[in-house]
Amino acid sequence: MKEKMKSILLALLVAGSLVQSYYLIYRLPGGDSIAKTENNYIKTDNMGPEESAENLIYPDKMQIHMGEGKHTVFYPNSTFYNLIYSRLKGRSFESFQRRPVENTDWSKIRNEDPGIELTFGSGIPVSLLQRVMQIAPDSLFEAERIDRIWIYTSPNDSKTHAMFFSTEGDIVYEAGKVDLTVQDVQQHVDFGKEWTAYSSEAGGKYYVPQSSIQMVEAEINIGVYTVEQMQQSLFFDPGITRYIQEKDGSEIYTDSKRSLQVRQEQKWISYTDPAAPPAGESSDGKDALAAVDFVNEHGGWNGTYRLGQSGTGEDRSQIVFQQYYGAYPILDTLNFHYGTIRLNLQQGTVSAYERSLIYMKSGEQHKTMVKLPGGAELKEKLGRINKDSAIEDLYPAYLPELTKTGTGLKLTPVWAVKQASGAVTVIR
Question: Where is the Regulatory protein YycH domain positioned along the sequence (predicted)?
Answer without folding.
Answer: 3-419
